[in-house]
Specification:
The complex is a heterodimer of chains A (147) and B (501). Chain A has 147 residues and is of the alpha+beta class. Chain A has 7 helices and 4 strands. Chain B has 4 domains: 98 residues, Glutaredoxin; 204 residues, Rossmann fold (3-Layer(aba) Sandwich), CATH 3.40.50; 91 residues, Ubiquitin-like (UB roll), CATH 3.10.20; 82 residues, de novo design (two linked rop proteins), CATH 1.20.1440. Chain B contains 21 helices and 16 strands. Chain B has a 5-stranded mixed beta sheet with strand order 2-1-3-4-5, with helices on one face. A 5-stranded mixed beta sheet of chain B has the order 13-12-16-14-15. Chain B has a 4-stranded parallel beta sheet with strand order 8-7-6-9, with helices on both faces. In chain B, strand 10 and strand 11 form a beta hairpin. Classes of the chains: A alpha+beta (147), B alpha/beta (501). At the A-B interface, helix 2, helix 4 and helix 5 of A face helix 1, strand 12, strand 16 and helix 17 of B. Bound molecules: flavin mononucleotide, iron/sulfur cluster (SF4) and FE2/S2 (inorganic) cluster (FES). The site of flavin mononucleotide has 21 residues of chain B, from strand 9 and helix 20.
Amino acid sequence: MEVQEGHGLAAIIRRHGRRPDALLPILHEIQETHGHIPADLVAPLAVALGLSRAEVHGVVSYYSHFRQAPPGRHVVRVCCAEACQAVGAEALAEHAQRRSGDLTIEPVYCLGLCAVGPAVQVDETHLHARMTPEKLDALLARLERAS
Amino acid sequence: MTTTLYVPGDAAALALGADAVAAAIDREARRRGSEVRIVRNGSRGLFWLEPLVEVATSSGRIAYGPVAAEDVPALFAAGLIDGGDHRLRLGPIERLPYLARQRRIVTHRVGIVDPGSLGDYLAHGGGRGLEHARRLRPAEIVEAVTDSGLRGRGGAAFPAGIKWRTVLDAAATPKYVVCNADEGDSGTYSDRMLMEGDPFGLIEGMAIAGLAVGATRGYLYVRSEYPHAIARLEAAVAAAAPWLREQSVDFAIEVRKGAGSYVCGEETAMLESIEGRRGQVRAKPPLPAVAGLFGRPTVINNVITLASVPAILAEGAAGCRDHGVGRSRGTLPFQLAGNIRYGGLVEVPFGLSLRQLLDDFGGGSRSGRPLRAVQVGGPLGAYLPASQFDTALDYEAFAAIGATLGHGGIVAFDDSVDMARQARYAFAFCAAESCGKCTPCRIGSVRGVEVMDRLRAGDSSQIELLRSLCDTMRHGSLCAMGSMTPNPVLSALDHFPEDFA
Ligand SMILES: Cc1cc2nc3c(=O)[nH]c(=O)nc-3n(C[C@H](O)[C@H](O)[C@H](O)COP(=O)(O)O)c2cc1C
Ligand code: SF4
Ligand code: FES
C-alpha cells in the first residue's frame, strides 16, 4: 500500500528509512513539523514500517514527549523534580497552573539546570533559571502578547 | 590584534542570559572598533558565577562574573580586553579556589575548549587515546580499561573492563556500542556539561570502545530534555566522521533523541527504545553484552564512563587507578544541586566526605537556613540526615549505610523540607515512570502514594503497611526503578520519623 502524501509523511519516511527502528526519529520529525502526532498518520506510518497500528499507537502514547493533540501557542515546562523542589518548584508550578490562556503549561522532570533552579523551558530551547512567581508572570505575559 | 573572549554556550549559562551577554559584547566591541573573537565554550561549572566571561590575555584567562548584558559597556570601559579591573573581575580562572581544589580529569577540557572545533580539541590533547588504541590489539585495550579500575558512572558502578571483555569474547556479529546519555536523575548534569562542553571527548571514547570490542556502529541516546546537547553532538559527530576515516577507524555514530521516559535510562529499556518500541525493561539474562541491541553483543555505558576512556589510553591506567579509595578508583564529577549556595560541578577523587562537598565547596544552603537532608544519587537514592554527612564519597561506604552514589548528583534541602512529602513524591514518580512490566513496581507505587496520603492525613497505623509495601517492591521488582524506590522512602522515614507522625 502506498504511503499517503498527506502531511509530508512520505518524505519524512524516505529520509529515515522504512525500518521499525526508525519509528522514534520519524515521530520526532512529525512532531517538529506539526507540533503533535496527528491521529490520521498512525495507520499509514504503521503500514510503511511494517508495524501494526496498535504498535505505533502504543509507542506514541507511551512516551510523554509525544503529543496526541496540538499544544497551545507556546509550551512552558516547569521543572518539578527534586533539585528544583528544594528551591520552591512546587509552589511555582501551582502558581503557573492557575493561568493558562492559550499557553500549554506542563511539568518536566529535570532539565539539567539543577544548580540554578527552579528551571523553566519554553518551546524546547529557551531556558530560564532561578525562576520566581513574579518572573514567571512577566514571562507568561510576554509569551501571551507575542504572536 | 584580535582578542578572544569566552562566553559559555552551556545550557545553564544560557538559562542565565549568556546569549544576551555574548550579543552585548559583540555590539560593544563593534562600537569601539575592538577586534574580538567570541568563543562559546562549555561551562566551568561554577554556576553562581554564570554567565562567566573569560578573556584570553598574555597572563592567562581572566574571569568576570556573573556578567549581565547591562554590565558589558562598563566592563569594556574598565579594560575588559586586557583583563582590566572591575567589580566583577574574579582574576585568573584557574586560581579560583573552587576550581583549584578539584582534580579535573574526565571534565578537564570542559569550559576550556571550543566545543564546536575539532582542531581545538586536538590542540588540547584530544585524539591521543585513540591514536594509542589503534596500535593495540582489542584485548590490550580492554586490559588497559580493566587495569584502570574504571567502574560505570551511570549508577550501577559495574567494572567497565569486564563488560567490554564479555562483548569482545562474544561470537555474534555485528556488535554495537551504545552511549547512555539519558541522564534522567534530578540533581545531575555532568553528562550534559560534557556533551555540551567537550563532545569530541565522548566520541573518541565511543570509537575506542568500538575498537576494543569489534563494533563499527555506535548509538548515542540523549534525552529529549537536552536539545542543546543534541545539537552539539550532531555537529561534532559530523565533524568527527572524516577525522575517524583518516585514521582508518571504521566507526559511525548515530545520535538518537529520547522521548521523555525516565526508565529509558535503564539499559535494556534504552535498547527497546532504539529499536523503535516502548521503553520496557527486558528480563536478564541475556545480558546486553551477550544479546543487546538487535539481539547482538552490545557495550552500553554512561557518558562519563566512555569519556573517561581516552585519558586512560593516552596517559595509562595509573592516571585513574592511582586516585580514589578502596574499590572506587579515579575521580567522579559530583554535581551540587538544589538548595545550595555554590552549586556546580566538582570533580574530585573518591574518598572526600559528603560534608566537605556540602560545606567546603557548596557553602551551605542557598536560603541561608540549615541543611536538613541531602538526596544523593537521583530519585532512587537515599535521603541522608546531617548525622551521616561525614560518610566518605565512595561506592562501598555509601552501600554500607544503605545509600548509593549513583551518578554523583547531590541535592540539598534546607529545614523547610517536609520529608513525608518527599517520600510521597518518590512513589508518585515511580508510578508515573514505571514501565509497567512487573506488578510490585506498577501497582506498588500507586499503593505507595495512597498509603502516604493516608499517613499524611494523620493515620499513623499506615507505617507498618508502608514498610511491607517497600519490602515487596524491593524484593519483587525486575529492575532498580521498583526495587530502589524504597530507598528515598525508607531513608526519609527512618531518619526523619517526626515528619511521619
Ligand atoms: C530506572 C533506571 C534509570 C537509569 N537511568 C540511567 C541514566 O539516565 N543514565 C545512565 O547512564 N544510566 C542509567 N541507568 C543505569 C543503566 O541501566 C546502566 O547501568 C548504565 O547505562 C551502564 O553504564 P555504566 O556501566 O557506564 O554506568 C538507569 C538504571 C535504571 C534502573
Ligand atoms: S521495576 Fe518498574 S520499571 Fe522496572 S521492570 Fe518492573 S515495572 Fe518496569
Ligand atoms: S531538578 Fe530541575 S533542572 Fe534538574
